[in-house]
Amino acid sequence: MKFIYIITTSIRFVLKQRVDLNQTPFCVSLVKQYSTWGSKKQHRNVKLNFPLNRMADPKIEDILAPFRASVKEQGDLVRSLKTNGAPELDVKKAVAELKLRKKILEDKELALAPSDATFDRAKMEDLLRRRFFYDQSFAIYGGITGQFDFGPMGCALKANLLNVWRSFFVLEEQMLEVDCSVLTPEPVLKASGHVDRFADLMVKDIGTGECFRLDHLIKAHLEKLAADKKTSQATKEECQDIVVKLDGMTKQDMSDVIQKFNIHSPLTGNELTEPIEFNLMFATQIGPSGLIKGFLRPETAQGIFVNFKRLLEFNQGRLPFAAAQIGNAFRNEISPRSGLIRVREFTMAEIEHFCDPNDKQHPKFDSVKETELLLYSACNQMDGKSAEIIRIGDAVQRGLVANQTLGYFMARIQQFLILVGIDTSKLRFRQHMSNEMAHYACDCWDAEMLTSYGWIECVGCADRSAFDLTQHTKATGVRLAAEKKLQEPKVIEVTVKNYQKTVHVEEIIPSVIEPSFGIGRIMYALFEHNFRMREVSIPATGSCAFEMLCSPFERECRVSTFPQGLTRLDVSHKVDDSSGSIGRRYARTDEISIPFGVTIDFDTLKSPHSATLRERDSMGQVRIPLDVLPSVVRDLSYGKTTWTQVESAYPKFEQQENTKAT
């Protein structure tokens, strides 16, 4: 079932006159009042950093040239240190300086961005909370930072998004879907490396117990100190030097900085504890005895890896194949922030594509090789250059993307994101630099989306090699391997009994290509990319223009006089006969991204009976006979016809949406 919204004009109202609200003194004052509403609220007109390669302004490039040269200079130093086998600490310090120079370059790019490239985050968040797309969990108890509840609108959007994901990947690519346990025994995550490596340093306020991530706290304090006019030049330089070296500092180094600069709690001024290593996984005990230690899973992937043998058997022992899983994961973030972007509980949709480590070609790669992606390679980052638009076939051929299978999934990821409503001008793929990449990974690219928070990673696509299956094999003694049929049999030496035998297959541990989708982050990007302000109404109203596939109410219709026709066509119905102007009722439906609306008015009572059909994004209206209206609605909802075709087939209906029935 698809969704449209039906509005009825009550018969008790008589339309006596149309009022131009922009011309009345009362409404002019309203315009002034609402144009300044919330102007002092935080997150007003956040500037967006659009990719500068799309601006193509030589003057801007002239200004940025020295900043790019500075980044390239440091990038060359990092390469040189690694090539010459310099000490790890020296490399880390050089990389930290490179990151600092990249940040200065990005800030300069932001300052030079067009002045109209802004976004009013506060108004969007007001709408999302007012219409209960989502809100902070346990709000009546004061709320919990980093935890959110989705309301009816958010649940519908999320369900539709996941349905599209499942259809686009699981069904179309014939993947094997699993649903594994959230509770994970400690040995599993010990083998995967999460127990030992999944930690950050933090400190506590000794008075309140408030926790702070140590590197963030030091950086914020020293940057504030360096910006103070009273601070001496020597101290400023020392602060800047420490910030650059933070990534390479040990626990003791950071403790010394806390003592030297007398850093206290930024909230209360209380003293802080010594640095503590904090594992980001939620620990728990499984069973009443408390003897079995476990964790809430930090990712869904491990459930697929430990079931590899069963999945291979289900696939009749053949490679390549892919398994997929949708589910929640948990990370006990020290300082969650930025709304849905950094939370403690989040939904992931992950794919693990198992393939021969010596043959990573993909049978369907030719179908996507002409796809153009905006690629921000590691080399371009280190050289201070912008991202480039490159066909994925060329990127693989040049070795920029490691192999066909990785390239295939990158192209498919972009197709999916565009399908659900991500703005292509705000989408890029950024390659991990060597210092970011896991030691076992061959190549890794993040699909990043531009938001008012900057570029945020929403999908990761990595070649994880054979690390996970190898680790679980070592930990359990169970061979998580596949057999590969040889083109020609070969003779091998068997050392135990010292004899030879001819084999026709060989055992291989498959490599894994992993696309990992953060559903909450994709939803947030969808909110920003599809939020619209309509200045033509009084007051200016916001709306969400989601694609039909993801629109929260795609499966519901609000109707008045012809419910049976819509029911037969799989469109449910309700009635909106609330008071107020037609325009206000339309605005309410636009806020929740309802694509079409039908209005039953006085002309509907005349013969031949008809009603108006309105399209959300253009706000255009046509008048359609009632006997064909249900089928038109169905065809629009299922993509069998377009709004342009409907407008050409039926007479337009002209009416101001800001008028009120009197």
TrEMBL record:
Keywords of this entry: Aminoacyl-tRNA synthetase, ATP-binding, Cytoplasm, Ligase, Nucleotide-binding, Protein biosynthesis, Transferase
Highest taxon of source: Eukaryota
InterPro entries, A to Z: aa-tRNA-synt_IIb, aa-tRNA-synth_II, aa-tRNA-synth_II/BPL/LPL, Anticodon-bd, Anticodon-bd_dom_sf, Gly-tRNA_synthase/POLG2, GlyRS-like_core, tRNA-synt_gly
SUPFAM superfamilies, alphabetized: Class II aaRS ABD-related, Class II aaRS and biotin synthetases, S15/NS1 RNA-binding domain
Subcellular localization(s) per the UniProt record: Cytoplasm
Catalytic activity: 2 ATP + H(+) = P(1),P(4)-bis(5'-adenosyl) tetraphosphate + diphosphate; tRNA(Gly) + glycine + ATP = glycyl-tRNA(Gly) + AMP + diphosphate
Enzymatic class: ligase
Recorded GO CC terms: mitochondrion
UniProt-listed GO biological process terms: mitochondrial glycyl-tRNA aminoacylation
GO molecular function: ATP binding; glycine-tRNA ligase activity; transferase activity
Domain (Aminoacyl-transfer RNA synthetases class-II family profile): residue spans on this chain: 262-539
UniProt EC number: 6.1.1.14
UniProt main location, coarse: cytoplasm
Pfam families xrefs: HGTP_anticodon, tRNA-synt_2b, WHEP-TRS
Domain WHEP-TRS, first and last residues per copy: 63-119
Similarity annotation: Belongs to the class-II aminoacyl-tRNA synthetase family.
Quaternary structure annotation from Swiss-Prot or TrEMBL: Homodimer.
Function: Catalyzes the ATP-dependent ligation of glycine to the 3'-end of its cognate tRNA, via the formation of an aminoacyl-adenylate intermediate (Gly-AMP). Also produces diadenosine tetraphosphate (Ap4A), a universal pleiotropic signaling molecule needed for cell regulation pathways, by direct condensation of 2 ATPs. Thereby, may play a special role in Ap4A homeostasis. Required for terminal arborization of both dendrites and axons during development.
Name of the protein: Glycine--tRNA ligase
Organism: Timema monikensis
